Amino acid sequence: MIILFLVFAALVALGIVFLCGKGTFLISGCNSFSKSEKENIDEKKLCRFMAKFMFALSACWLVMITGFAIGIKPIAWWGMLLFLAVAIAGVILANTGGRFKNNFRRSDFMERFYYETPSVSRKADALEYIAEFHRFGSDINGSGGLDRFTDDYEGWLLKLEEDRNLIPDEKKSPAETYFFVRSADKKIVGMVNIRYVLNERLKKYGGNIGYSIRPTERRKGYNKINLYLALKLCRLHGLKKVLLDADTDNPASWRTIEALGGVMLREYFEDEFDHCMVRDYEIDVEASLERFSHIYEPLLEKA
Question: CA 223, CA 265: separation in Å to the nearest integer?
Answer without folding.
Answer: 21
